[in-house]
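Hi R.,

Here's the chain you asked about this morning:
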Amino acid sequence: MILLFLMVFAIGCAKQGTLDDESLKTNNQEPGKQQVMIEESIDKEIIPKETEQIKQAIAWKEKGAAIPGKYADADIIALGNGKYRMYYSAEPEVLGFKGQVYSALSSDGKSWIQEDGTRKEWAIFPSVIKLPDGSYRMYFQNMGVIKSAVSSDGLTWQDEPGTRIGTENSEGVIFENVVAPTVINTGSEYVMVYGGAINEKYSAEKVPNSETHILMWATSQDGLAFEKKGIAVDSRNSVFKGWLDGPEFVNWDGETRLYFWSYRGIYHVAFSNNVFSEPEFDFTNSQDSATPFPPNPPGDPTLAKINGKWLMYYGQHEKGIYYAVIDEETIKETQEEKKESVNIPINIEENCIGFLTGNPQEAELINSIGAAWARPHSGPFAWGWIEPKKGEFDFGPVDEWVEKAQENKVAILATIWPYADWDQEQCHSSSCEVASEDQFYPWGEIGGIPKSRCMPCSPEDYKAFLSKLVERYDGDGIDDMPSLLIPIRYYEILNEPEMKEPDLTFYKGTEEEYVEILKLSNEAIKSVCPECKIVQGGAAGIRSDMLSYWEKIFDLGGADYFDIANIHYINFGDLNTLNVKDFKELMQEKDINKPIWVTEAEYGSEEDVEISFKGALNAGASKIFFTRFKIGQKKDPSILNDYSKVYDEIKCS
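And the predicted structure, written out as tokens:
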């Protein structure tokens, strides 16, 4: 709850029942009544000065009330259907206060529609997570300890027996109560941060509150039995002056962060490898950042990325739950201070010839042929290869591909495999696994795809991974790979998703789920790199069942989420145009007008290459990737100049 000078509001800092009836005031809204809460746009720019010894993070701009009224303690979850649910609490001044938790829905994060009824009573500081089985768990403060409840739909809750966290600890301090839990599932364990309330004033300085709050942390394998680890962030210093409250875990584009507030405003630390970093200052709504104890500071932060944009929600005592957005002007100024951006050179962009590659060294061979594009296959762009554990990233193999490519003036078309074992096991069974004889399992030295190949269980984790990947190689000069010269601006989402052969299955999900993967990928990529292009996962051919698959994808709106269509010719179909003609006709039937690439062209004879290459270009293809350096040879050589000389005869114009 929000603190205002000398008063400690809400049960967040005291046991239930300590507020008498006379201290309760009438709320100016009727709880449970459905209403549209309209954005109050005030566009007040808040760029605070740096606090003592605390680095200032990115600037935020206050926008107005998301939930007006006597409410606080927001927590937001993504429902997976383009909608978000906010849980929030009544403030204790409300007449008939019983620690009520309410909820509201939104699709843009700005206008919220309150849902009917009360979600729960006597649940202070609700923190809600989605469990692997699709149900929900709420952690909350009750009678000075941390408890939990579960729900199958996120609306009706049932208390779980026992206490998750009590007041006992090994840090030599006596907690009057424990408060404000926040929990995150890292993929390997549950991590909780919570407040410990010490019933004594911070004595080093004159401060408003009679209690001292520090942040503690604990871990659990099942989310129920927690092992206490110690202090996460200590407030007993000249910066925080004995007060930290309202912690909130956030997966910030692949980085696990813990946000919280103190007297001056909102801060965050990063959490990695069981270590909490030094704090960074984020936000205050005080016009005088030098004031040590500003009135009604922003409290109890929660953050959500909605439609590709980060929003920060915070409480304002007796006013409601407000929100702020990242100040775009400050971002622009920051970008200008960074190193210059890089682009794919125009002569590479205009080159229409590429090759499938099995290892990074083949970029030299591509260059010697006069081509300029590499499509690593299966390549290093599998989610689980780059992020083997949630929040732990290894870009080493991708860096090697990019470095070798740019050394040889070659650009990369990256094929994204949206699979990570730690994610897949959260909601999928063995039915999502491919056969052991699958050509791309197990992983080898130069590639491979995880065995379980269904829709990501956590769309937010997948988008966070993809955003981080794109940011590293987009060439915008911000958080780029060191010495990046030729960025990755083209991303293919899966390959041949319709292929369901016993020894070759790239994707085990449905057409509807593939469209959702396209949508998630589009949101993640475009939010970081608007100029990047998304390539449809290559259609395996023009066999009737294959065309029917893509017809359904188009009917489901899949074309809304890619920029470039993609067809393959593997010794089958229309040799004269490499299947471009038939696939283009299907697109035209669906009123889809997009560029077409042929990202796999495979032949049995060299004599077919030149005429079909020209035929595909004339039919509308703008790039063609060959699958073999030596036509007809199963295993490609990596010897410079050892390739089929027919490639010397083909030209893009």
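The longest strand covers residues 175-185.

Let me know if you need anything else.
M.
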